[in-house]
Structures are given as C-alpha cells and as structure tokens.
C-alpha cells in the first residue's frame, strides 16, 4: 500500500492472468490457440512496416470495422473494436452498467467481471450455476431493478454453451438494460447471438481475435450490437483513448478475417483434439464437463486438483488451477496440438497410475 494511492485504488483486487512462463513448457493454461495465425498475416506485417508505422492510426478503425461487419453480416455502425475484448468489456461496464443497481452475472464465469465491477463500483449480483454446471439463464433473467446482465457463452471456465433459443428467452424478459453476451469461445462449437441484434437493441455481443484466430498477442477485440449501443461505447472510448486499436493490429486483424479457410481448419482441429482429449481423460477416470470451447474443465475423484496441477507443472505441463472453493478440485486444460495433449495424458498417467 502506498500513501499516494487513492482509497479506490487501495480497495482494488486486480485480475490475475494465467502465468506466461519463459522456459520451454507445454502451455495449456490460458486458452491460446496452438496453431499459427493465417499466412496472410505475415505478409501484411512485412508490407506495413515500410510506410505506415510512423502515422497515427484511423481513430474510427473504419477498415477493420467494415471487415468485421462483412464477416458477421451486420452494418459498419453496429461494430465497435478495442484493444482486446477485455478493454471492450471495461468500456461496456462504463457505458452501460453504472446505473446504481446490481449487475446480474453467473457465480462461476470469467473472473474479469468481478474485477471490473469493483473498479467501476458496480454491485455484482451473482447467480449459482445449476446442477449440470450450466449458467442459470432463468435466474439471471428473473431478478429486477438491475443495471444489466453479463455472461459468457460458452461460459468460462466450464465450457457449457446455451442455445440461441435460451438466449432469446432471456432477451424477451430483460428489455430495460443491456444484456452482454461474451462470445470469446463461440467459434469452437457454439451458436453466435449476433443474428439477434436487429431484434434486440439492448443485446451486445463481444468477441476476440485471441482464441479462434490465434492472435492473443495482438490484443484485438470487438463488440457487435445496435447502433445506439455502439455509439455509447464510442462516447466512452473517445473520452479515454482515441486510438485504442493501433494500425498494425487493424491490418493484421483484416488479414486474419480474410482467410476463412485457415480459420475453419484451425478451429476444426481444436474441436477434434478436444473430443479426443475428453475421451482419454475419461479413460483415466476424470469427470470432464462437456465443452464447446477450446478448453475442458476436469476433475478426478481420487486426486485433488492442486496435487494434479503441481504434478503436471513438475513434468513441464502448465494447466490452470483456480483456488476457489467451487473450482478447487478442477483443472482447466487448454486444447493444444495432438502432441501436446499426448504429453499431458502421459504425465497424468504417471501421476495417477
Ligand atoms: C480470453 C477471454 C476474454 C479476453 O479476450 P482478449 O480479447 O484477449 O482480451 C474475454 N472473455 C472471456 C470469457 C475470455 O475467456
């Protein structure tokens, strides 16, 4: 604690990202994609350095937003982009969730939501998952006098995804405030709610280039929603940082969106490896929650999560272990390449056998 910190800064509990190890290790702890980004990305980078790097970027990111609009079949003015979807989420908290009423969220979900709630002084009203570890949309929609609803679909770190029908049922109940659906993992097998934005002006869908497009290091995220919601985000963004998306990120993002074949092949590989990994974990006695994301959440009836995490770390495999009461026994395992998952299974055999 420093005397120079404001009381609000003293009271913060910052988000703790998964470890980014420097040594050689099989890294299955922060849901990155094991495959390289689209080949066009490299060419775009080389062409770019020569004549563009000295200039400020377009503050409206028009070209990138137009490409996202084309990709998702929406209008340019229905797209917002930011420096990672974490930043887009932070701006959404400021733009939509500061109404002096609670924000409804699942009790187990992306751990950045409580951090932003704390930073922006928004009370979080959490709703337990159901017995199948699924987000309870009924409970989220039932509360009243709220400042909004936020959840991830697929949810993290459980991997379960709701159908569009379920989400539409929620949208029919919550019409007065923003419903934010965080689709960071949607490309690994879930249905996107983007098709609903024209019918529900309070629906905001966020997405990221970090997972399915293999660009976590670039920091690029977006939000898609009605023009009035996107305008709200722009108001906050233009009161904070006019250039959150650098011109290099825009260029690389466009190159990635252009290569649909690469995108589809890469996510299909991840999905195939996920199912193979799930079967092999189950053969070792693990309970594996059904996942539509690029990770699985798994627990073993005889081996504690912390012990498995430490045993894997010793054997050069890094997964994610959450030190909370409900998740203490679980490991969240990112889906890597088949070879990486073979090493994971071998290490688990050695630990459990
Ligand atoms: C990874 C993740 C994000 C953040 O993505 P970035 O674009 O890398 O900031 C947002 N939401 C969820 C649920 C995530 O898992």
From TrEMBL:
Pathway: Amino-acid biosynthesis; L-histidine biosynthesis; L-histidine from 5-phospho-alpha-D-ribose 1-diphosphate: step 7/9. It catalyses: L-histidinol phosphate + 2-oxoglutarate = 3-(imidazol-4-yl)-2-oxopropyl phosphate + L-glutamate. GO terms for molecular function: histidinol-phosphate transaminase activity. Its cofactor is pyridoxal 5'-phosphate. Its EC number is 2.6.1.9. It is an enzyme of class 2 (transferase). PROSITE patterns: AA_TRANSFER_CLASS_2. The keyword RNA-binding does not apply. CDD domains: AAT_like. The modification N6-(pyridoxal phosphate)lysine is found at residue 211. Keywords: Amino-acid biosynthesis, Aminotransferase, Histidine biosynthesis, Pyridoxal phosphate, Transferase. Belongs to the class-II pyridoxal-phosphate-dependent aminotransferase family. Histidinol-phosphate aminotransferase subfamily. This is Histidinol-phosphate aminotransferase. It comes from Halomonas citrativorans.
């Amino acid at each position: 604690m420093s005397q120079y910190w404001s009381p609000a800064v003293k009271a913060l509990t910052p988000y703790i990202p998964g470890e980014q190890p420097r040594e050689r290790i099989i890294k299955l702890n922060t849901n990155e994609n094991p495959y390289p980004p689209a080949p066009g990305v490299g060419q775009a980078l080389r062409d770019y350095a020569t004549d563009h790097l000295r200039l400020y970027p377009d503050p409206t990111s028009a070209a990138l937003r137009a490409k996202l609009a084309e990709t998702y079949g929406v209008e340019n003015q229905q797209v917002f982009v930011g420096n990672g979807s974490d930043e887009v989420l932070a701006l959404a908290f400021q733009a939509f969730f500061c109404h002096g009423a609670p924000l409804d969220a699942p009790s187990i979900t992306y751990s950045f939501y409580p951090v932003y709630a704390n930073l922006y002084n928004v009370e979080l009203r959490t709703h337990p998952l159901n017995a199948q570890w699924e987000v309870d949309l009924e409970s989220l929609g039932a509360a009243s006098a709220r400042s909004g609803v936020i959840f991830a679909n697929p949810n993290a770190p459980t991997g379960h995804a709701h159908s569009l029908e379920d989400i539409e049922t929620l949208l029919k109940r919550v019409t007065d405030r923003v419903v934010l659906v965080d689709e960071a993992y949607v490309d690994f097998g879930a249905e996107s709610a983007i098709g609903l934005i024209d019918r529900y002006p309070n629906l905001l869908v966020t997405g990221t280039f970090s997972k399915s497009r293999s660009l976590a290091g670039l920091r690029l995220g977006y939000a898609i929603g009605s023009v009035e919601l996107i305008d709200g985000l722009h108001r906050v963004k233009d009161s904070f940082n006019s250039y959150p998306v650098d011109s290099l990120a825009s260029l690389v993002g466009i190159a990635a969106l252009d290569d649909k074949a690469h995108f589809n092949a890469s996510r299909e590989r991840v999905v195939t490896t996920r199912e193979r990994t799930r079967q092999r974990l189950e053969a070792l006695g693990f309970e594996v929650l059904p996942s539509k994301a690029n990770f699985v959440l798994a627990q073993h009836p005889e081996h504690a999560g912390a012990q498995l995490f430490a045993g894997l770390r010793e054997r050069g495999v890094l997964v994610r272990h959450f030190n909370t009461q409900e998740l203490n026994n679980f490991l969240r395992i990112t889906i890597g390449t088949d070879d990486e998952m073979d090493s994971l299974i071998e290490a688990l055999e050695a630990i459990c056998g």
